[in-house]
Amino acid sequence: MTGKGGTGKTTAAAALALALAAEGRRVLLAEVEERQGIAQLFETEALPYEERKIASAPGGGEVHALAIDAELAMLDYLDMFYKLGRAGRALRKLGAIDFATTVAPGLRDVLLTGKVCEAVRRKDKAGWPVYDAVVLDAPPTGRITRFLNVNDEVAGLARVGPIYNQAQSVMRVLKSPQTAIHLVTLLEEMPVQETMDGVAELRAAGLPVGAVIVNMVRPVLLADVELAEVVSPDGPGAEAAGTGGGTATGSGSGRSVNGKRRAAVAKALSQAGLGGARRGGVAERLVDPLFAQAHEHAQRVVLEREQRAEIAALGLPVRELELLGDGVDLGGLYRLAESLRKQAVAGTVPDPGAPTGTVSDDPEGWGSGSIAGTDTSTGTGTGTGTGTNGTDGTETNEVDE
Amino acid sequence: MSLDSPLLEIDPLLDDLRTRIIVCCGSGGVGKTTTAAALGVRAAERGRTAVVLTIDPARRLAQSMGLTELDNTPREVDGIDGSAGGSLHAMMLDMKRTFDEVVVNHSDPERARAILENPFYQSLSAGFAGTQEYMAMEKLGQLRAQDAWDLIIVDTPPSRSALDFLDAPKRLGSFLDGKFIKLLMAPAKVGGRAGVKFLNMGMSMMTGTLSKVMGASLLRDVQTFVAAMDTMFGGFRTRADATYRLLQAPGTAFLVVAAPERDALREAAYFVERLAAEDMPLAGLVLNRVHSSGAAQLTAERALAAAEALEDFAEANGGPEQGGADRGGENLAAARIVDHRPGKADAGTPDGTQDRTEGDRQAPSERLAAGLLRLHAERMQVVARERRTRDRFVSVHPEVPMVDVTALPGDVHDLEGLREIGLRLAGAEEVAA
User: What's the pLDDT at A298?
Assistant: First the structure.
């Protein structure tokens, strides 16, 4: 899961992990930026470099979490592949590990993504994957392609040798159909632009793009005819909206038609018990600020529709998450997860704000199609270096960005 | 019931010729870049010779300031009203190029070439966490040294955490001073001193291990890189320290930018505390995207209740049966603001009420009024929420001057929009509805 800063990608990643964990599945939610965003979200203490259960999902599922630290991942790696337990620690003391992970960001990314891929491939004693899915709260859109494309990054540093081999094997997982890179955005110009750029980059690098997740979607509270009426510069709201309100005594042209409309609205407000409708009456004085607010709302809706159209043009599955007004708490997180599940099952998104918006219908939207609980049987476990995984192919690895 | 904090007065800050640097910091997505650009426009049009250093502006915002390419040099912004004698330049930071310039300027050509071509340098200069922050500081130091502007406005990078900006110089410094780097360079440096034997032993053990892990050619690249960077290390540190002191100087003003959201204000609070701890001069907090209402006297609850009443009425009236008309209560019936014909009646009926004569492009007035009321209720809820979030910050940091900048419905991408933001920053905007 990637996205521009501030779009809520950690929230989206956590919601996806919860959604994928439903019905008894086991999901790993990992973060790599040493931000402890997962711990904050789940309201637990800081996560160590160790997988631990942080949440239960409906139907007996579990979400485990891991904060991947590059230095520790390197020690892990040294230990696993070279049995360098003590020497590794000595290197760390000398600052060699810090040096290696700092001086070569590519190396760092190999380690971080390598740890994720290790979790993806890990099997229990019976040969079953330990995790049904792995969701990665990844670096932001601006850095995602670099981060995942460790192959290119490392090619500049090491053309042969163990690090090169490690990078190759990571890339095999990341470019396989087991992986889907989802992008989180808001219906605002900058995040959408960044999403478009990110998708283009990922595609150019041959990395599998998943869905676009539109986060913090706000409700549209006016019907289309009403929106059309208040958005136009000559609409009844014009006098109020233009100057920021206050000047209710609009002069000249607007008076005839809009004046009537305003008077009618004032009357309606008055009938609803909000005061007098006559000029200067309590209800009448509400009309201008209310129209000004509606005008702003309509302008925003128009902008949002433009952004939706841009997103639709990408031809990717689109999922939407509502704005949680009071901030994201655990309850809200479960609601978002439920919403993601429903959308994946339906394959489409109820699209409150944009009757014109297109929503791609892609049952594979989550990479391995696992969110709907439909096991894939594509045997995509190749490329992990272990051949086909010998199970029935239910391994669904969400290396979500 | 809301808490008050001192007002952050932007114009006096911009007009004070002793203000030489303004740093806009805060977490990502709160409008830092826009704020920096708007301050630049306002300062220039009030007579300052200003330059804005942006890190990663949105494309259209960049275009609005004439920044079509990333060429790492300040360009004059067209369209600024220079009648007060001011001007505005703007530049986008090119991190890699800035790093390259540092290398070229601080080492002899042969060494510079060796560094620039080294694969580790290429990796480091493009992606090392903190490089962007460090290079922003470096560029700030350069602009200040050029002395061509009397006000430099800096937008800080969209870091993981707002604090990275302050930590970057130290972090790079301590990294470059690291034991391991010393060790890698040890054979060359330590010479005949005591302990060389031990170091060499440690070195050979280590290089053995390292080359096993990384491969020998990779290790050789690292060593070349470190040796080549060696001469520059001192310079890095000196300049990082100088920039740090520059930030503490009285001519510098930090503006923490935030939005009235929990996370953004939490970051802002961290930043305020951190600036105090580092003796960095905080001018105040810019709270962006604040909502207000011109009809604040009408509460969300009353608006919703009224909207429901109107909708019930419209429902009753919109149905195919006329009988429903009277159910709206005698008030409505008496006022005859609703036409009693069946809802689907065509608009052409000559005796239609005013609502209908305008064609069916319009919703009945009660529906429209109900929609307006629902919008208002939502707005009031947003206002209340923002107020609570803001108050939480103010109760912890009551001394921090603050200015609210009301939300614009769309993104800003022209000078006009930046001027509007500037007005709002200065607290001079008309009360937005």
Answer: 92
Q: Check whether residue B257 and residue B157 sit in a common domain.
A: yes
In terms of domains, do B281 and B308 share one?
no
| Contact between chains at A246 and B431 (C-beta distance less than 8 A) | yes
Name the closest residue on chain A to residue B226, using Cα atoms: A103
Residue B201 within any structural domain of the chain: no
Please check whether residue B220 lies inside any domain of the structure: no
Q: Do B37 and B161 lie in a common domain? A: yes
How far apart are the C-alpha atoms of B176 and B230, rounded to whole Å? 9
More confident residue, A358 or A216: A216
State residue A320 phi and psi, 5-degree precision.
-125, 140
Kindly give the residue spans of alpha helices, DSSP state H, lying in B106-190.
109-117, 119-127, 131-146, 164-176, 179-190
What's the residue count for chain A?
A: 401
Chain-chain contact of A290 with B180 (C-beta, under 8 angstroms): no
Domain architecture of chain A: domains with CATH? 2-220+318-372 (3.40.50.300), 224-305 (no CATH)
Comparing CB atoms, the residue among B56, B371, B411 nearest residue A222 is B371
Whether the complex's predicted ipTM is more than 0.90 is answered with no
Nearest CA distance, B256 vs chain A (angstrom): 16
Residues B263 and B354 placed together within one structural domain of the fold: no
Q: Which of A184, A286, A323 to mutate to test the interface with B (most CBs of B within 10 A)?
A: A286
Q: Are residues B159 and B308 in the same domain?
A: no
For A218, A355, B310, the CA distances from A308, given in Å and listed in that order, are: 13, 10, 32
- Distance from B214 to chain A by nearest Cα, in Å? 6
pLDDT value of residue B203: 58
| 3-state DSSP assignment of residue A247 | coil
In a domain, B171, yes or no: no
In the numeric block, the tokens 């993981």 are attached to B160
In whole angstroms, what is the distance from residue A191 CA to residue A216 CA?
A: 12
Instruction: State the total domains in chain B.
Output: 2
Q: Tell me, yes or no, whether B34 and B147 share the same domain.
A: yes
Asked whether residue B267 falls in the same domain as residue B324, the answer is no
Q: What is the pLDDT of residue A178?
A: 92
Name which of B280, B356, B217 is nearest B25 in CA terms.
B280
Shortest distance, CA A338 to any CA of chain B (angstroms): 24
Find the CATH number of the domain harbouring B79: 3.40.50.300
Residue-wise pLDDT for A77-92, tens only, equals 777 777 666 666 777 7
Category of A26 on φ-ψ map: left (φ > 0), alpha (ψ -120 to 50) or beta: beta
**Residue A380 pLDDT greater than 80, yes or no:** no
Same domain, B250 and B356: no
Binned average pLDDT, 10 residues per bin, chain B of 433 residues: 84 96 87 92 97 79 72 88 94 85 84 82 66 81 92 81 64 65 56 46 62 66 71 69 86 94 87 90 95 93 95 75 38 40 40 42 83 95 93 95 89 88 83 38
Q: What secondary structure letter does DSSP report for B322?
A: G
Q: Which residues contact B391 (CB under 8 A, 6 or more apart)?
A: B2, B3
Nearest C-alpha neighbor of A158 from the set A107, A109, A206 = A107
Q: What contacts B290, CB < 8 A, 6 or more positions away?
A: B260, B386, B390, B404, B405, B406, B407
Domain containing B361 equals 300-376
Distance of CA A161 to the CA centre of its chain: 36
Residue B212 in domain:
no
What is the C-alpha to C-alpha distance for residues B115 and B130, in angstroms, rounded to an integer?
Answer: 19
CB proximity list for A184: less than 8 A, separation 6 or greater: A1, A2, A3, A4, A7, A8, A9, A12, A212, A213, A215
Phi, psi angles (nearest 5°) of residue B69: -135, 160
Of B164, B176, B154, B102, which is closest to residue B132 (Cα–Cα)? Answer: B164
> Sign of torsion, CA A249 A250 A254 A258?
negative
